[in-house]
Amino acid sequence: MMLYDFFLGPFVEFSFMRLALVGCFALALGCAPIGLFLVLRRMSLVGDAMSHAILPGAAIAFIAYGLSLTALSIGGLVAGLTVVLLSGLVTRLTQQKEDASFAAFYLLSLASGVLIVSKWGSNVDLMHILFGTVLAVDPPALLLVAGIATITLLGLALFYRPLVVESFDPEFLRVTSGGGALAHFVFLVLVVLNLVAGFQALGTLMAVGLMMLPATSARMWAQSLPALMAVAVGFAMLAGYLGLLISYHANLPSGPSIILVAGIGYLASLALGSHGGLLWRVLKFKHLEG
Amino acid sequence: MTALALENLTLSYQRHPVVHHVSGTFRLGSSTAIVGPNGAGKSTLLKAIVGLISPDHGRVSFDGIARGQLAYLPQQANIERQFPISVLDTILLGAANEAGRWQRWFGGTSHADRERAASALGRVGLAGFEDRPVSALSSGQFQRVLFARILLQDAPLILLDEPFTAIDARTTNDLLQIVEHWKLEGRTVIAVLHDFDQVRQHFEQTLLLAKECVAWGSSGEVLTRDNLLRANGMAENWVPDAAVCHRDEEITA
Predict the structure, then answer these.
(1) Please, which pLDDT band fits residue A288 given cuts at 50, 70 and 90?
(2) A56: Cβ–Cβ under 8 A, 6 or more apart, which residues?
(3) Contact residues, chain B, for A174 at CB < 8 Å
(4) Domain residues for A284?
């Protein structure tokens, strides 16, 4: 029964662990496919930028309403969407590339966020917003995360084709049906939504981790888009489960544990992945030499 | 009958013209080569026809064909070749060319579409490549796939921007056969090309462009030494930063 106690015990015994686990699974379902599209569209760092952009909205909400789930989510959402809209507008109206305008606006946003927190909040507030607490996920928070995962999956299913075409051959989309900008915008809104879901559990800084690490790892294991998505989601769920387990047994903070597990998975994928894993390259060299 | 007409068309980037007061018509079912030195505005002209950029002056008017009914192959296809998509799915993007955006965005592909895609793949000489990821293809194979997608688009007007640049002789020949077939089917083909022998052999009309229209007519008459020298002369006098256009009068007919 040792194994049972180790692997399932904590979740059977404590409801907060169960809630955290289900929260992680819901996050994985939404974040992983979004992260995959970010990677495929060469926008990996945009996810990072957006996670910082959410800070001032969350900070203002936190200071005004305290640790209110609704307020934090709406605040983060408003700040994130403002940055998406402004940088989208600048990209289309000037010659600035999207990554540059995103960088500019997220920095503006981040700086105002830090300013607001240090002037009117306390360091504890900042720590909470930056790092979150997955173990504090309560049923309303879980509903929010699950709701966002549902919206994400429905949105991706609905806009799958324009998103794929826009990522693969944007000019073709513009010539044949147009509307690439709309598909792109819907996608960015989904990115913001998932970061808002993620920062409840993992904090603004680490929410991106569950998005990007499983997605980049999946690239080492699969080649078709559906397979990539399946691998990324499975990977993110596993990271959530193992991360929570480790944080429980070793008495470590849960957010970083989850992301570190995902990170170790990424390193393992780099080494062992069936599509271009480094270890196979080394072994092949040895074979050739021998 | 005209397929489309250029009416005193001027195209520019930040008001510096690259295509200057060009007028003329493409007949329905004709094949036209657009030739001219680098920087002559050939690709820009195609982009204006396709609708990727809008004219500063004059217009492109479609007669026998709707703008939605064209197939376009860009020059250095701005395509993410590493994207995890199969050859079959790439070609299937060309299905339902006439359908509206709703259909193209949310509609599925039928069994008939898939059969057409497989036969198009056969016609470009890549039978059996359906499930390969596009990232595993060579440039020549990828260009064949893009031709197969155009086959599936089944468009009455086909625009090709330097389709045979960096493509080997065998692939070029195979793809030219497909162009010949399009001509037989009565499709209007417009292609930017650099190989004059190719133009003389396969395209009845030629538009010689050097920012302004140097000559436009049957390929034999246009591709003369005089005309080419004039075009090159205009290209040699070409200034990297063309003057801002103030003239409005027609320069060439």
Answers:
(1) low
(2) A79, A109, A110, A112, A113, A116
(3) 52
(4) 2-289
